[in-house]
From TrEMBL:
The organism of origin for this protein: Nocardiopsis mwathae
Keyword flag Hydrolase: yes
EC number annotated for this UniProt entry: 3.2.2.n1
Keywords tagged on the record: Cytokinin biosynthesis, Hydrolase
GO biological process: cytokinin biosynthetic process
Keyword Hydrolase belongs to the record: yes
NCBIfam families per UniProt: Rossman fold protein, TIGR00730 family
GO terms assigned for molecular function: hydrolase activity
Lineage of source species: Bacteria, Bacillati, Actinomycetota, Actinomycetes, Streptosporangiales
Record field: catalytic activity: N(6)-(dimethylallyl)adenosine 5'-phosphate + H2O = N(6)-dimethylallyladenine + D-ribose 5-phosphate; 9-ribosyl-trans-zeatin 5'-phosphate + H2O = trans-zeatin + D-ribose 5-phosphate
InterPro entries: LOG (IPR005269), LOG_fam (IPR031100), LOG_family_nucleotidases (IPR052341)
GO cellular component: cytosol
Name of protein: Cytokinin riboside 5'-monophosphate phosphoribohydrolase
C-alpha cells in the first residue's frame, strides 16, 4: 500500500507535499503584526477608495428621487440666503425629493434643515477636512468621505438635479463640474438650477460674453443652467425637466418598438 501524500486546501487552492506552505492563511493574518508602512502606500489607498465607493453606493442606492443642493459653507443663519436655502430644501422635500447636501454648515445646513422640518429625507455627504467639523444637526442619513472625488461621484450618481445656491470656490467647483458633465453628455437627465439672480446673473453674463462670443462654448451651453429667485420655480423647473425626459424616453421606446 502506498503512503498517501499530504494535502492542504486553502480556499480555491490545493497544495500537495513539499508545496504545502509552512503557515496557514489565517496564521499569516492573525499571528503577527509585521511592518505598518504599507497602509500609507497608494495600493492600500486604492483599497480605501474602493471601500468609500462601496459604503457610498450601499448607503445611497435605495434613496428615491433626490436633488443635491450646494452653497456656501460660510452663510450665517441670519442671512437672507440661509432663509432662501431653507425654503428651497422645504419645497424640494414637499415635492417628494430627498435633499442631499455636503453636510456642512451655511447653505448646506439651511437646505438640510428645510428638508427635515418639512418631513422629507435629509442626507449629508460630508468630507474630511484639515480642521474638526461634524455633520450639521439636520441630517437623517450621513456619511463622511475621505476623498473629494468619491463624494462627488455620489452627488451625481444619486441625485436627479443640482440646485446651486450662492457660494464660493467649493460651490463654483460643484457647479462647473455639473455643467461640464451635462455639456459632455456624461449625464443626460440633469437640470442645474442656480438660485439667486442677483448673485448668479453676473456669472451668466460673463459666460455669454467671454465664453460664447469667443467660441469657447456652444450656443446652447449657457442654457444648461436655469436661473431663478423663486423656490417654487426650482421645483417646477426640475419637475418639468423630468417630465420632459420621461416623455422623450417613452417616445424613444415607442419608436424602437420596445
Ligand atoms: C469653511 C467652513 C467649513 C467647511 N465645511 C464644509 N463641509 C462640507 N462641505 C463643504 C465644506 N466646505 C465646502 N464644502 C463643499 O463645497 C461647497 C461649499 O463651498 P464654498 O467654498 O463655501 O462655496 C458645498 O456645497 C460643499 O459641498 C467653516 O465653517
Amino acid at each position: 500500500m502506498t503512503e498517501s501524500r499530504k494535502i492542504r486546501r486553502a480556499g480555491p487552492l490545493t497544495f500537495h507535499g513539499e508545496a504545502i506552505p509552512e503557515t496557514t492563511t489565517d496564521q499569516r493574518l492573525l499571528d503577527r503584526r509585521g511592518p505598518a508602512e504599507w497602509v500609507h502606500t497608494d495600493p492600500w489607498r486604492v483599497m480605501r477608495i474602493q471601500s468609500e465607493f462601496v459604503e457610498g453606493f450601499g448607503l445611497l442606492s435605495e434613496v428615491g428621487q433626490a436633488v443635491s443642493v450646494f452653497g456656501s459653507a460660510r452663510t450665517r443663519p441670519d442671512s437672507p440666503h440661509y432663509t432662501l436655502g431653507e425654503t428651497v430644501g422645504a419645497k424640494l422635500a414637499g415635492a417628494g425629493y430627498t435633499v442631499i447636501t455636503g453636510g456642512g454648515p451655511g447653505m448646506m445646513e439651511a437646505a438640510n434643515k428645510g428638508a427635515q422640518k418639512a418631513g422629507g429625507t435629509s442626507i449629508g455627504l460630508g468630507i474630511e477636512l484639515p480642521f474638526e467639523q461634524s455633520l450639521n444637526e439636520y441630517i437623517d442619513i450621513g456619511v463622511t468621505f475621505r476623498y473629494f472625488f468619491v463624494r462627488k461621484t455620489m452627488f451625481v450618481k444619486y441625485s436627479q438635479a443640482f440646485v446651486v445656491m450662492p457660494g464660493g470656490f467649493g460651490t463654483l467647483d460643484e457647479l462647473f463640474e455639473a455643467i461640464t458633465l451635462v455639456q459632455t453628455g456624461k449625464v443626460t437627465r440633469f437640470p442645474v438650477v442656480l438660485v439667486g439672480t442677483a448673485f448668479w446673473g453676473g456669472l451668466r453674463d460673463w459666460i455669454r460674453k467671454n465664453l460664447l462670443e469667443e467660441g469657447l462654448i456652444s450656443p446652447g451651453d449657457p442654457d444648461i443652467m436655469y436661473l431663478t429667485d423663486d423656490p417654487d420655480d426650482v421645483v417646477s423647473i426640475i419637475r418639468d425637466a423630468h417630465v420632459n425626459l420621461a416623455r422623450k424616453d417613452a417616445e424613444a421606446e415607442t419608436e424602437n418598438g420596445t
